[in-house]
Amino acid sequence: MIWQDIVFAIAGIIFSIALVPQVIHGFKYKKTTIQKNTAFWTAFFLFICAITSFTLRLYLTSFVYISSGILWSILLYQSIKYKEKK
Asked: Is the pTM of this model over 0.70?
């Protein structure tokens, strides 16, 4: 494991922790303020980063990117399911 893997992983963990309250809020109140496009593209590129980091043998970083991608995918699901009613 190289030091860059640890640094990227720590940053990714902090970003994921910061995202958890938004996910919980969406499930609790059955509404979302995240746009579908934002959630989709963020999740998509996090999964791309996960694949790329895996090929560089940055396994910890890859795992964290996958975790963040899953959280953004949940936000995408919420933005589709809990459409804001006008």
From this structure: yes
